[in-house]
Amino acid sequence: MKRFKIQFLVGTAVVSLAAAGCTDLLKEQPRSIYDPGFFQTERGVNGGLTSMYAHLRYIYGNAYFYNTTLTGTDEVTYGRDADENFLAMDFSGRAALNANNSRADALWGAAFPNINTASGIIKNASAVGTISAALVAEARFFRAFDYFMLVQTFGGVPLDLGSGELEFNTNPIRTSARNTVPEVYTKAIFPDLLQAITDLPANPRVVGGATKTLARLYLAKAYLTYAWWLENPNNIPTYPAAPRTDPAGRTAQYYYQQAYDVATAGIDSPGPFRLQGTYYDVNLATNDRNNEMLMFADHTETSELYNAGSLTFGSGASPDNFAGWMLTWNYTNIRSTTAANGNTQVSSVQREAVQALGRPWTRMAPTIGVIENTFADKTNDSRYDGTFTTTYRGNWPKGGVAAQTLYNANSLPVVPGNAILTFLDAEPTDAITYPTGAGTSNIGAGVLPGRADYVIAPRGISRIVYPGLWKLGPYRTDNGSGLGQPNAASTRPFNIAKFSELYFVAAEAAVKGATTKSGQSAKDLLNVIRARAGKWRFDNNGNVAKSQDNSAAMVAATPATIDINYILAERSREYYGEGYRWYDLVRTQKWNELASTYRIGGNNYGDHTPTTVTRTIQPYHYLRPIPQLQLDRLDVSADIKATYQNPGY
Amino acid sequence: MNTRIPSSRPQRGLKWSRLVPLLLLSGAVAPLVPQAAFAQVAGAHTVTGKITAENGEGIPGVTVVVKGTTTGATTDVNGNYSIRVPNDNSVLVITSIGYTRQELPVGTRTTISQGLVPESQALNEVKVIGYGTQRAEAVTGSVASIGGDALREVPSANISQALQGRLPGVQFAQTSSQPGASTQIRIRGTRSLTASNDPLVVLDGIPFPGSIGDINPNDIQSVDILKDASATAIYGSRGANGVVLITTKGGKKGQKPQVTYSGFVGAKTLFAKYPMMSGPEFVALRKAANQYTNSLDEADDVNTDWQDLLYRTGIQSNHNVGLNGGTENGRYNFNAGYYKEQGVVPTQQYTRFSIRGTLDQAVGKYVRLGFTTNNTYSLSEGSNVGVYGALTSSPIANPYNADGTLKRTIRMPLDEQWVTTKDVIEANQDRWLSQTRSLASYNAIFGEFKMPGVEGLKYRLNLGVNYRQSQGGGYTGQGINAVNPTTPSSASVSNAVTTDYTVENILSYDRTFGEKHNVNAIALYSASSNIYNQSRIAARDIPSDAFQFYNLGLAAGEITVNPNDQQYQKFGLLSYMGRVMYSYDDRYLLSATFRSDGSSRLAEGHKWNTYPAVSIGWNVAKEGFMQGVGAVSMLKLRAGYGVTSNQAINPYATLGRLTTRPYNFGPTNYQTGLFVSELPNPNLGWEYSRTWNYGVDFAVLKNRLSGTVEYYVTNTKDILLGLPLPPTSGVSSYTANIGSTQNSGIELSLNGTILDNLNGWTWEAGFNVYANRNKIVSLAGEQQRDEGNWWFVGKPINVVYDYEKIGLWQQGDPYLNVLEPGGNVGMIKVKYDGTYNSDGTPTRAIGTQDRQILDVNPNFLGGLNTRVAYKGFDLSVVGAFQNGGLLNSTLYGSSGYLNLLNGRRGNVKADYWTPDNTGAKYPKPGGATSGDNPKYGSTLGYFDASYLKVRTISLGYNFDSNAWLKNVGVSRLRLYVTAQNPFVFFSPYKKESGMDPETNSFGDENAAVTTSYPRRILTLGTNAPATRAYLAGLDLTF
After folding, report:
1. Closest chain B residue to A47 measured between Cα atoms?
2. In A, which residues are within 8 Å of B725 by CB distance?
3. pLDDT value for B669
4. CB distance A313–B482 less than 8 Å?
């Protein structure tokens, strides 16, 4: 017995020694994560391609980045609930822009990892051997796209991420050296896009996939922007310092011509892309992903996982598409009463997940100039109606208020679907009676005799009450009979590039002296856009079908000579609130000229007296500050860090 | 077991038990006494008697030896002994652990009964030192110990709560205030920047892979904490952050079977509500800010206390039944426990069932076998319910409809809030729940074989096999906790399984040569492996509430298996270890250890590491020249040096990583993208710490006062760091050996008996205080500052890098427009570090370069405990204190969104600036903002973290000599009442807020914005509120 035990014990010991002695114990085999080696397989490369599209969500739809593209331009100022991120962007003295409050960091943070992914795909694809040139071209497109966005926003940026220029970086370095603007264009953006145009398909591989047309638009735009940079008409500084000469010795004029040629080639070989029949259809939620859209950051309401954001309550961070909240004011404060002249108030326009409404953040506001000047023509031109929510309609039954009839302005009855508040297209002939303070509407809206809806005139808008941005409003199919999920981020795609812009790019190049082709003069090109803008099929704010073709009137109103200011105004009508404006004004160096003053009412309900606000836009503001995070993580001396930052910040 | 038998023959000094791992330890195990034959001598006769304790009960296992001989005996279970003495001049030496040694001249007596007097703990205390035990006297490393009874003076769910403030150099910080939550343990500060700073927990000799809450405090015999490198060295890399050795109760040899019961029950109440504004205060704030008008649910004359509507009184109860006993050759101890703790937040509760057993049996002369098994089933419920909704609700919003029913939601000017009250939560218990069920089994089996023929040589095999499964389930019914009543229901299930084993082969040798040379050597080879596997599935739109989370397959909506929620991690560790302890005459002590570890987590070619540790001790009091110094009973000097190393990074960190990014191409074409987020590091190796430790242990005044003073310096280099890279590198991070840190500190503990049974009064007190100074010595390369991670050379690891509030801008203060463009009078004024023009104007606006490094670490910490006894009564108080340090309360700071100071929603009580109240602490409502908060609002959350806290007060009565109880078989009965967390003093935070100043969250939890602070900066956020409990308990032994 004892003997047996001893033997047993010793035996166990020996066995356990042997078992444990196996050095397999020290080998690692991950089973729930990818190690970087997978990136060198065909499926890994495909995953890399998908992540490049997904990276767009971290830039487009992010409201803070959205703010950097608009606030401070002639399109947008800050709204009543603006925080420092918005105030700083307005350059009107409420806060100074710096590396910490500039939210262009969203671009910086998303672009470089994506550039590296693109370089990795380009490198690994050749090693894998089964990756088509068309797929590699998608990577080239995105690498160029990110560099183009970066160079416009920050000036020269590094081409070497650690393993050499445009090489896939596997070297964990914590230093960085910026290239110059011409180096970024001529070494990275142009070659990649030229290759992409050659290799990309005409028809997208997936919904929203990169195409020849998309690459043409970006190459044309890059040529145009670079040409402006070379020309530098208003002597705006660049950084890092570089002479305004092309490394290959080409002139600005050469690039204007290239821009024109590439853009018109895009128009002439559109592939599957077309202009929509009416402007209303371009941004109509039910018509999302239409064939005018060349690229968008997509979202879905059918999968929280793949939408990468809550379908019920958005927290206000990437990768959610929450840009639309910024230009949405708090319409839910509008009050009607349950009885004529009664005291029982009801919120008659409740927060609803429909395109005209959505979640209000009141961070940004249109200026009076936008309403009065940019969209001076609201009759022929359908674009004002296709851009803003100017009529707020009663939806209280969806919010559980049982009353069939409520009493609104002038104590007149309203029923669900009636206008509760209307932003008038123009100053009325009879003066509006505005209350002192919030008044019976609770939002300081006025009344006109006989009208059941409260009204506000164009000059009566303020930082707290203004027409909302209809274009980016949410849309869901799961609202049922209720208000839906207005607090979720938008599940619509955020549109980034449109076929229509080829016309603008070509027209701008033409204005800048490109030799035009027959029938494609600047005016010809703009008239295509303007003619479309004259076509109505639906009166959005009137909420009625409206079949009307004002194309002729629109074309007739086009000036004989197109100049840059006219192109910029037309661009604003076409792309208002979509995130183009700051780049347009910076490219053309017209920011200061067009945006240095604006008019808007104050912060409080009942404030209908416009004030003229002056902005102080310095030449150095034409570049955004390098984000604090980049500076924080650089392992370089303080003086080198200081030279890494753009001057002035 | 370490009782020494004076022996002239070396082979009798068979102190094998010094080597026996923890589970053999128990209070009174007698050594093996050789049955030596002896010759008949004149006067020889047999002496019998009974050795008794103070209470008159016989003590089993007491050694009785005839002085100067090897003749000895051991008392039986009743304390009786019988010994043959050689002559009338014989002297009996009676020794037993925990009692003063007695020498009794025999003379011609044939019956000698003797009562033993308990010995002061300081001298005969046994410390568990890892692969063995040692008398405190012989320990040369830094070991802090506490017994299970002292531990249980603070009734709590787990020992990490009970230990707070009890041991010098060991900091316990609360990371959650929910029932059953455990705390963060830091031994002598933090060393590593990214790798784990958690100590190794060893349960009954086996590294413990589970949750500390799985260990029932009632089962604990002792907790010993190894603090310096020479003490932890034998645990190698896993012990780099210190080692917590937990020893559970064993049986006693020769103990009659006894049944014990201990339990308590009590009420758990709120310590203090979160200090939110009342209705009238809020009305004034909203008016002062002039930004928002009342919503339809709000009115100026409403005053709703949302917290009153939410909280309840919880019940806390604990019951344990145990059986233990022993025979000549074996011992056993079994215990079953039940613990339940309800929080003050409805449905939050923690329930634990535990069963433990230990058996130790000798088989024949050479073999011992045994096992310990700890099994726990626990259930945590209610983490779905938070307090934030109640706190953020406007106090002027009326929760009731006109008909008296509760509203589903209340509207505020910008926000709408689902109404969370106790009634709502309880009514919806089956529609809104979250629970985690854990089953854990920790088992250690050993076999021991004494090598016949080689005196003192032994082989032992330890096998630890552990399993822990944690199953989570959550369900939120349609419209629950949502503004929209049609928000679809959602449910999730998760499952996490840890399987873990350790095999240890130990060869030990223990002998005393020539009476004075004691050698104890040990060699070990061990292998361990741990696999962690987690999965989680979520689903939306469960058709029937009845399903809850039990069948996600029935979901009508999306079923999500998020790749980020699925985890598999496996790591292995191989080790060789050797240790020699040598002592000469108990005066000169030496311990030398070396260990070699191979870790799977490090890169190929860098997996193995070998490191040494040495410590020496000198028992000065045993020197001849000290014998005349009667006041000093013990004085020991010791010093140690050792290297330890750390590999506690996540498995696979050396390999780099691709992160996934889901995307949809069009509404329904779902794809998963991936990109390189972490680069591999083929050179990733060990992190090293070199520790010097110096200590003095002393006992004076006949052991009435004893204590320890220690000083240490730990230098850590090649720190394992998940190093974030600048965005321009295109990769977010990689793990590298970068930088170095230093911890140095001083620790003092004192224990004294102030009154020693003076007219029946006994008064004992213990006190400890310690201070640790932590700093980063270097970062990567030449880098002096890592602003992105808040790491700065020369500063501690844990700092807040933020602006420093120096007041508020007042009317007429110069340069407001320069320093704060767009700013306003009444806004927060922060420190400006920039230069000035010759005319005195600042050269620039305040910006990020003005951020300051704010140290969060306390100046010193400690604890105190005291016990006063009179007859059967005893009163004990346990307290803890902290001086200095920064307490970050997100309640007041920006990230909590509860101090917006604009009247948008519920606001914490704050004395804010108005033109008539310019001396206020808080800024002008509606002034300059950053985000939604007042500009620099984060600075409002920083408080002085000092406090003195009485953790428990207990009053008990022992029915020790009650005849009636004895008659019914009760040998021990104690009744007590305890107040838990009764008082807090000297806390600036409590002074302002009324709240408990202890942290309750990691830096990235329980705030509206969880990205403002790194996880390591513990905060006081909107977790379950701190509580105070009143308990009544009873301990009973049959």
Report:
1. B673
2. 172-174, 633
3. 96
4. yes
Provide the pLDDT confidence category of residue A78 given band limits of 50, 70 and 90: very high
Task: Please give the full DSSP string across B646-681, using - where no structure is assigned.
Answer: E--SPTTGGG-EEEEEEEEETTTEEEEEEEEEEE--
DSSP summary character for residue A199: H
Kindly provide the residue ranges of all beta strands, DSSP E only, lying in B718-790, ordered along the sequence: 720-724, 733-737, 740-758, 761-778, 785-786
Question: Percentage of chain A with pLDDT > 90?
Answer: 90
Q: Residue A120 and residue B676: Cβ atoms within 8 Å?
A: yes
Instruction: State how far the Cα of B337 lies from the Cα of B354, in Å rounded to an integer.
Output: 5
Q: Which pLDDT does position B125 carry in this prediction?
A: 64
Please report residues of A whose CB lies closer than 8 A to that of B463: 16
Residue of A nearest to B665 (CA): A207
User: What confidence category does residue A176 fall into, taking pLDDT thresholds of 50, 70 and 90?
Assistant: very high
- Chain A, chain B: beta-carbon pairs less than 8 Å apart: 334
Are A26 and B725 a contacting pair at CB < 8 A? Answer: no
Question: Going by C-beta distance under 8 Å and a sequence separation of 6 or more, which residues neighbour residue A164?
Answer: none
The residue type of B572 is G
pLDDT digits (tens, 9 = 90+) for B445-500: 999 999 888 888 999 999 999 999 999 999 999 999 998 898 999 999 999 999 99
Query: Which of B699, B830, B932 is closest to B122 using CA atoms?
Result: B699
pLDDT at A7: 54
Which amino acid is it at B556? A
Half-sphere exposure of A375 (CA within 13 A, CB side): 29
Identify the sign of the CA torsion B584, B590, B594, B595: positive
* Structure-block tokens of residue A403: 């009353």
Give contacts of B730 with chain A, Cβ < 8 Å: 112-113, 115-117, 119, 161-162, 169
HEC readout, A508-555: HHHHCCCCCCCCCCHHHHHHHHHHHHCEEEEECCCCEEEEEECHHHHH
Q: What is the pLDDT of residue B121?
A: 44
Q: Which residues pair with A170 in a beta bridge?
A: none
CB B879 within 8 A of CB B948: yes
Non-local CB neighbours of A536 within 8 Å, separated by 6+ positions: A278, A280, A382, A385, A546, A547, A548, A549, A550
Task: Give the residues of chain B that fall short of pLDDT 70.
Answer: 1-42, 54-56, 97-98, 118-125, 961
A312, B367: Cβ pair inside 8 Å?
Answer: no
Element (H, E) at B873: strand B873-883
- CA–CA gap between residue B262 and residue B337 (Å, rounded): 9
The DSSP output letter for A371 is I
Of residues A2 and B555, more confidently modeled: B555
The rounded distance, in Å, linking the Cα atoms of B669 and A198 is 27
pLDDT of residue B252: 79
* Contacts with B402 from chain A: Cβ below 8 Å: none
Residues 66-125 in A contacting B (C-alpha not used; CB under 8 Å)? 80-81, 83-85, 87, 93-96, 98-101, 108-109, 111-117, 119-120
Q: In angstroms, rounded to a whole number, what is the distance separating the alpha carbons of residues B897 and B929?
A: 12
Measure the CA–CA gap between B393 and B947, rounded to whole angstroms.
30
Nearest CA in chain A to B845: A96
- DSSP 8-state class, residue B386: -
Burial category of A560 from C-beta neighbours within 10 Å (exposed 0-12, middle 13-18, buried 19 and up): exposed
pLDDT at A320 over 50: yes
Q: Do A13 and B505 touch (CB under 8 A)?
A: yes
Q: Can you give the pLDDT at residue B178?
A: 86
User: Does position A287 have pLDDT exceeding 50, yes or no?
Assistant: yes
Distance from CA of A197 to the nearest CA of B (A): 21
pTM of the predicted structure, to 2 decimals: 0.87
* Sheet strands side by side (includes B733-737): B657-665, B669-679, B733-737, B720-724
